[in-house]
Amino acid sequence: MKINENFQKLPAGYLFSEISRRVAEFRTNHPEVKLIHMGIGDVTLPLPNAVIEAMSKAVLDMADAQTFHGYGPEQGYASLRDLIAENDYKARGVDITPDEIFISDGAKSDCANLGDLFDVDNIVAVCDPVYPVYVDSNVMAGRGGELDETGKWSNILYLNCSADNGFVPAIPESKADLIYLCFPNNPTGVVASRDQLKAWVDYALSNQAVILFDSAYEAFITDESIPHSIYEIEGAKECAIEIRSFSKTAGFTGMRCGYTVVPKALKRGGASLRDMWNRRQSTKFNGASYIIQCGAAAVYSDSGKREVRENIDYYMNNAKIIASALKAAGISFFGGENAPYIWFKAPNEADSWALFDRLLNEANVITTPGAGFGPCGEGYIRLTAFGNATETAEAVKRIVSLIQ
Amino acid sequence: MKINENFQKLPAGYLFSEISRRVAEFRTNHPEVKLIHMGIGDVTLPLPNAVIEAMSKAVLDMADAQTFHGYGPEQGYASLRDLIAENDYKARGVDITPDEIFISDGAKSDCANLGDLFDVDNIVAVCDPVYPVYVDSNVMAGRGGELDETGKWSNILYLNCSADNGFVPAIPESKADLIYLCFPNNPTGVVASRDQLKAWVDYALSNQAVILFDSAYEAFITDESIPHSIYEIEGAKECAIEIRSFSKTAGFTGMRCGYTVVPKALKRGGASLRDMWNRRQSTKFNGASYIIQCGAAAVYSDSGKREVRENIDYYMNNAKIIASALKAAGISFFGGENAPYIWFKAPNEADSWALFDRLLNEANVITTPGAGFGPCGEGYIRLTAFGNATETAEAVKRIVSLIQ
């Protein structure tokens, strides 16, 4: 019996469990202090009424043999796939057919499970800083190599992001096979322009690479020139898989629903990646919940769209509050304009965790240390716009007065 | 870019898609004929009221910021894990702690994803006939080897089941590392006695193997001497992972909820498999839906338990109807006593698919051909007890008159 030894290579501590530990310690020592949460990327507004009504009805469907729903299609209900094709793609001039769309229990599962389609012997490229799931799931699959003292894996190609390149990485000079891109970006909140995405598509096409494009935050884009989907770029259907989520768009973090698009035009090694993903999902997944899919379908109703827009506007107003306060204080930052994340560096503190601790202990605000997303995040802090507006204003006031 | 070539080894046709194709063809040619479905393993009774009420409330929780639930624990809510530990284990004298229980979106996902914990270089043992997911997920991971003309994979150890051993396989003479066992069994409906399970636990302990025990059908056991959990066997915590489902127990096929138990005592290669599964689920999964988990918790309420029992009794009454009719006709069969499946061979037909076609075309009953579950299933047919009682009686009458 041999276990998968790659698991043993992963460092024990997770970013968010370390944050929880420090917060719990603070709370034990200072039970009287009310902390403001600006760290976790979870939504706080309740679900849209349209979603609630659709799910209430779906629950009752399950109470009657005539309307009961047992096993659904592993790919998701056709009605929901049709709505996605129509609203998320056709409405933006992109032709994606429903049978290229796979509904799942969330973008995190899809991001991680997509690795099943690829050989262990591929070069993975990720941005630094990056959403840890891309890296950790590949390390588990044996694509990491060894961890060095700077926190980088020997077989992973890191696309360095910094203030110099506006946290949008340059096209690498060496060859990568699997490229994870996330725009609008978590954690930095930056977006990629059409030209920047075009350069990545061209690179992938000429290297026979596959882009795994995470567009979980596309609903937060306000600048009309920024693509919402990689498929707005010519040639992307021949080289990209797109992963989307209802979590941040419609407040579905506790509901569990997302989807992945694998175009039929995407072929590698003579095989259709769409057919491979279909086989993977049919074998290792049993469809998303009927009730949750009914809720997701309601996101595309007229009232659903209006309510979702209102919630996103609320969060983006928080982002504006944060951005304005930082700007007024002369603190430079990234994001916040087309994403619910703001990424900034304190003028007088080069260590993310030290800054995290000062913000926790002295400003009583919980944030996320940028170093937790990769070595290039060192010195930075991620703030999220998913909180309450009044608390957000108070928190950013305290942050500014502490670090200015 | 190298794709995972193991996918290309899998035969294109699935059992259930081939059945659907033949049924669709029949329906096109005979639109006037009403078919009775005795094939698919899906439930038909609506959800218990206790579950409906709990989910209706949970949906409303999501409509109010005060009771809204965002991201939940990847391992599932502690309240549900406590109920499982108490009701499914402690009540049967088994000490499983809540932190050894991992809630998921279903047993199919867990069965397939558990492979992540093990090296590609392990000998997998499966019963023949078998639930195809065990085999296909291992083939995808590279543990299959090559497919031979009899439908067997060169690197998989098949535990042959037949009428001679009552479809409970003998302990193998060679060494296996990962052993998939499912009792009550899908597709044969047979159960394993305490002594039979003890022999497997002893084998696993002495070979340092791991048993993946699928007890999705434990709620259908009527014989009090039959173990519901592998952990009722001494030593099992050091060698077994148990996978369970709310699907068949409580009608959750369209809901998506199951759980997996990985005891802390289970260690291999110096590592805790519980900690590895925790890391896998934390990295590649984001928890089951809050609403669905609230529904699952209601299964353990007094009224939930009563209603679940009534539904299971209804299905088991169908099993009795089938069993009595076959017995009266002198047709021998397996299962139906402690499982919702009946497994029989026609006296005058040695080919599963030919028998399937005759039952479809002449008796107008949809069944499942045993050969679809593996070479040892050849000649057999699986009937399920999940239908309507009147239709079930009519279907089995037609089957008997056709094959007798």
Automatic annotation (TrEMBL), chains A, B:
It catalyses: (2S,6S)-2,6-diaminopimelate + 2-oxoglutarate = (S)-2,3,4,5-tetrahydrodipicolinate + L-glutamate + H2O + H(+). Keywords: Aminotransferase, Pyridoxal phosphate, Transferase. Its cofactor is pyridoxal 5'-phosphate. The lineage of its organism: Bacteria, Bacillati, Bacillota, Clostridia, Eubacteriales. Pathway: Amino-acid biosynthesis; L-lysine biosynthesis via DAP pathway; LL-2,6-diaminopimelate from (S)-tetrahydrodipicolinate (aminotransferase route): step 1/1. Its EC number is 2.6.1.83. CDD domains: AAT_like. Residues 34-399 form the Aminotransferase class I/classII large domain. Homodimer. PANTHER family: AMINOTRANSFERASE. The gene is dapL. Belongs to the class-I pyridoxal-phosphate-dependent aminotransferase family. LL-diaminopimelate aminotransferase subfamily. This is LL-diaminopimelate aminotransferase. The modification N6-(pyridoxal phosphate)lysine is found at residue 248. Pyridoxal 5'-phosphate binds at residues 71, 107-108, 131, 186, 217, 245-247, 256, 286. Involved in the synthesis of meso-diaminopimelate (m-DAP or DL-DAP), required for both lysine and peptidoglycan biosynthesis. Catalyzes the direct conversion of tetrahydrodipicolinate to LL-diaminopimelate. GO terms for molecular function: L,L-diaminopimelate aminotransferase activity. Substrate binds at residues 14, 41, 108, 131, 186, 286, 382. It comes from Acetobacterium fimetarium. Gene3D superfamilies: Aspartate Aminotransferase, domain 1, Type I PLP-dependent aspartate aminotransferase-like (Major domain).
